[in-house]
Structure formats: C-alpha cells, structure tokens
Task: structure prediction
Amino acid sequence: MRKHYLFILLCVFTLLTNCSGGEDAPVIMENTSTAVKTGKLTGKVMSQNGTKPIGGASVFTFDDQYKIYYTTSDSEGNFSLDAPAGNRTIYIQTGNGTNFRTEISAVVKDNETVSLDANQTKLNQVAKIAYVKGTYDKIEDIIQILGYTATEITNNDLANMTTIAQYDIIFLNCGSRSSTTNPALYTAIDANLAIFVANGGSIYASDWDVAYLVGGTTNTNNCGLPGGFVPDSKLCSKNIGSSGNIGATVNNAGLTSALGFNTLNIHYDLGAWQKIINYDPAYWEVLVKETSSNDALMIRTNHFAATGIPVTPIGNAATTTFVTVCVTLPGNIQISLSVPQAAVPFLVALGATVGPCSGASNSGYIYYTTFHNHASGNIGNAGVILQYVILNL
Result:
C-alpha cells in the first residue's frame, strides 16, 4: 500500500510540475527563436550617365524591425551587401544622402546572390546645383562629365537670397569674386552665404575664392581681412603659393577608400595660389595635406553657426520626405544617412538620433580646396578628388 501511495504522490508531483502554468516550462520545452534568413546583393554604383564608377557610396537596407544592413562601394564602385531575405528597398547614397541618392526595389533570396542591373544602381541627383563662373576654375565641367546638371548664376544672384535659396549646393569657381568693383554687393553676398550655409545649404570654394569665406577682394592676401562669413579665428589663407607639383597625402580613411589611393601629386599651374596659413582643427577637417610639410590643402566643415541668422528654407528642404539621422553600426561606427520620414521613429527606438552625427545640427557643408580644375592641362588624380567633393556636399 505504501508503494502505491508513493507512486501516486510521484504522479501528482509530476503533473503539477508540467501543468503549473509557470513561465519557464513552455520556453524550455519549445525553442521559438529562428535565424534570420539572408542573401546577398551585388552591383556597381555609377554616376547618373553611367560613365564613372562611384566609390565610397553608402549602400543599405533594413529588415522588418528596421535593423540596418550596410556596406560601401569600393573605388571601382563595386559593392556586396548582405541583406535580409524578402522584398526590400535598397538605398544608395553619397555624403549624408541629402543631395545624391537612389532607391531600388529588390527581392533578396535566402542564401543566394542577386546581381543588380547597372541601370538600377546609378546615383541620382536630388539637389539643385548652381555655380558661379570663374576665371581659373571650371568645376561645372566635372559635374557634366558625371551626368549631373548645374545652373550658372552670377554674383548679382548671390546677393539675392530668394534666388540662392532655390539651390542646395553652390560652387564658387576660382576667380569669380572681385569685391573692389561693388563693395555693397559683396556685403550682401557675405550675409546671404551665411544664411545659406546655416540653414543647410552647402558650398564649395576653390583657391582664390576663399575670399568668399574669410574676406578679401579677388583673393586673400592676409589674415583678418574685411568681408566673408566664416570667423577669422577659424581660418587664415594667403595667396603665396608657387606653381609646380606638390606631393600630397589623403588624410581621411573614407576618402582613401573611395579613391583607392592615399598619395598623389597635385599640379598647381599658376603661382599665387592660396596657402592655408592656419585653421581651427576643431572646426575644420583636413582631407588632403602636403606630404612634406603637413600643410592643409583640402578642408571641410559642417560646424557653421551664427547668432541672428533667420530660418530660411533652402533648396529641397521644404518638400523632401527624407530626414537625416545618425546611425551607429557595429564597432561603434557612426554614419549620417537620409531615410524616409516613416522610418525615423523605428530607428530612433533602436538608438539612432535625428540629425547628423557631427557638426552643427542645421549646418550645410563648406568644402575648400587650394587646388582646382584648370583648363591648361590634365589635373590627374586631383580630378577624382573633385568628383568626390561634388558628390559628398
């Protein structure tokens, strides 16, 4: 009888253990986790007309929970992206995606590689681009070679805020400024360029056109001259450079990867080019420097801010459905990307922040190069660097 009683107790204990309704039993008994099915997408990022490969482009997509899958194109434009299986939107962007980006619909197949057609992976121009014609520089030629469009404007246009507010990017070609002819005009230009950049517009200036940034007349022959809109404490340049070839080193890992090289010779065809005398390293990032002296030859910033600047919609800002966010990748690598507005709450919930990863929250970029595109000869690898500038403003 005792044996039967013990047997009954054992059965009851077993029954209670299995049917107690506790949380542990079903989790232990049933493995509900499933591995994410992924495939691979390959392709080649090309300029809009399909003639030039684009290195350093961001290529990414999201899974159903908005986890990001990300890679970059190499110097030949090639990429390979691991992506979650299923119907996906693939994003291709340069810079932070504000001005150049492409969206592709693709079916990612589990454990298979799908090659995207070259017509799908062309980088589209979103930005409205303007340039001021210069005496010594023709950046518009490189823009056209890539298959993109830019509108010629004048210094009179720069003095009209309504006119320049239509554009996202303005290129200032070396030799386009001469403030001695109409000082009042250039006072208005300086004020307008400050408004333009503070509200998200981007500017590229080359060589003598540093005068638009820090003051001067046709060029800048000393520090702290009247005019410009960048604080004098942030940059000083003097037109004391000598003609000839200069050995240069690329000082930025992303630029090196995009170019496929980190050293080059830069040809300065004319003397009296603008040497960067000093700069604030917390304000400017040096992208290219002279190898022998470490002097900066190419710099950029997105730290511009000033008090009393009116809020002014610039370019496509009023109509865009994309938002710039900062996403942290594995390895604590932060990248700025443009994503659809609908994705922002989900990305923020996963740790992303709205706005760029660095710089002033509303600032556009200012790129400045002491060298430029010139008509007197082949500028070699410097031309590839200028392509990068165009696509990353």
